[in-house]
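Structural prep section.
Before we set up the soaks we want a predicted structure of the protein with calcium ion in place, mainly to decide which crystallisation condition to try first. Input record follows.
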Amino acid sequence: MQLDLTGFDFESKTGAKMTVAWGSDTPSYVIGDADGDGTVTTKDATLIQRYDAMMSVGDSFDTAAADVDGDGKVTILDATLIQRYLAGIGTNKYHIGETTGVA
Ligand SMILES: [Ca+2]
Ligand SMILES: [Ca+2]
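Run finished without errors. Recording the tokens verbatim:
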């Protein structure tokens, strides 16, 4: 996704262009894998808790993967969903641990 502000006019708040590209460039990730190491562990849940508390999470933190329930926000609920998944509680309705975004 690209945001082009070349023609943006601050007075009228118009002229910005946003480009969303789909296809081979679409990044794939493992749902719940917040640190991007390929597996979903308690470390990912802990990182999400840190992120939620505005603590440092490192450059590899993947907000898309961390947003388990897909509400557009990384919250403590996402961390809880991962912990429930790791503990085998309930159904995995958010497909935690599955790879997504593959073209
Ligand atoms: Ca991980
Ligand atoms: Ca979320």
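Observations: The chain has a mean pLDDT of 90.
Flagged for discussion at group meeting.
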